[in-house]
Amino acid sequence: MLRSLLTLILVLGLALGGALSLTAVAQEKDKDTSKEEGKPTPSTPAEKAVSAVTAAYELVRYGRENNAPEALIAAARVIGTTNLDPLEDKENKAEIDKDYDNRTEAENLIKEALGMKTGKTAAIKGLAASVRSQFKETTRNRIDGSLTITGATLNIRRDRTDTYYANLRPGQQAYINVANTRYPYGDIDLYVYNDRNVLVARDYRANANAAVTFTPPRTAGLRHRIVVRLYAARGTVQYRLFIR
């Protein structure tokens, strides 16, 4: 049990510590990187929440690829205790899961972890019970200032692009992130345009996730267009979009 707990802490610490630089280690698809944004630097509760949930999805990926149920349970803890407001706009036409619930997703991850064959059944059951007890003790208050789209899908052959609209305050740092949420993972790119249709931020590096941070100038309008594009994949991918 102790070894599993230590592994859980190590994996979670590495993921959360490196969540904001996930795209920095990938090969670039284009040599022109002059307009790429730097690493996001979260400071507000909403920004930290979005960063933590993004890291949790990277933990899920790590756990599945390395048969590490501890990673899935750590991710479930973060996802199940972080409640973000849905991004709702009549112009957003993407196909999304209207019935998404973060606790349900977390519970599904725990069940997946319990089903992994690792020879550590007792320890994993103990970790799962501990996280489930935290769900009962944690209120489901939403974190103000953070928005999310969940359960959206793209297909490499039929539907490679989704477009969203969001109001981003001039003079206030914006943080936008896209994370793959299930197999098969694909290479997703992210582009942001202002109300004058000018590209203001992008992340088109070869990675399953994409993230940008930028500050809209005070002369700009609130309305921004966010384009999520699937560059490469085996078929259909599911992703989650975060905006702060």
How many structural units, i.e. domains?
Answer: 2
- The count of helical stretches stands at 5
- Helicity level: 25-40%
By secondary-structure content and strand pairing, the structural class works out as alpha+beta
**Order of strands across the biggest sheet?**
1-2-9-4-7
- Tell me the radius of gyration: 18 Å
Order of helices and strands: HHHEHHEEEEEEEE
Q: What spatial form do the alpha-carbon principal axes imply?
A: globular
Question: What does the largest sheet look like?
Answer: 5 strands, mixed
Please tally the β strands and state the result.
9
Strand content: 25-35%
| Low-pLDDT residue intervals, each spanning 5 or more residues | 14-28, 30-38
Describe the protein's architecture and organization:
It is built from five helices and nine strands, in the order H-H-H-E-H-H-E-E-E-E-E-E-E-E. It has helices at about 1-20, 45-65, 70-80, 100-115, 120-135; strands at about 85, 140-155, 160-165, 175-180, 185-195, 200-205, 210-215, 225-230, 235-244. A five-stranded mixed β-sheet has the order 1-2-9-4-7, with helices on one face. A four-stranded antiparallel β-sheet has the order 3-8-5-6, with no helix packed on it. The protein starts with a helix and ends with a strand.
